[in-house]
Amino acid sequence: MSEFWKITSVILLSVILCLTVGKTEKDIATILGMVVCCVAAGAAVKILEPVLDFLWELQQLCDLPEGVIGPLLKAVGVALVAEISAAVCADAGNASLGKTLQMLGGAVVLSLSVPMLRSLMTIIKELISGL
Hints:
With 131 residues, the chain is mainly α. It contains four helices and no strands. It has helices at 2-22, 26-61, 69-91, 95-129.
């Protein structure tokens, strides 16, 4: 929990710094924001390691097919990166690129869902053939 407070403090301080620097050097403020986003994302991955370990353990315990948990986690990651990147684009004054990033993220999430949908289709076929 202490990592959360540390990262939150760094983010809030960087917001103040970006507001101050952004008045004269908007490019530097944008780059600073992107760097802090990357640091926060790395911290979030570290914080989520126990959750990821639990999900893999759950997959093995429940004997879920390989293509269920992995694509789901990748889709969440892509959606978060696309959303944050779109916000950075909007902050930099290029909202149209941000919307394009969101569209691209949606397309990737859909493509990542195909293995999961295939696994679901296999399970449904097994249930129907067992009747």
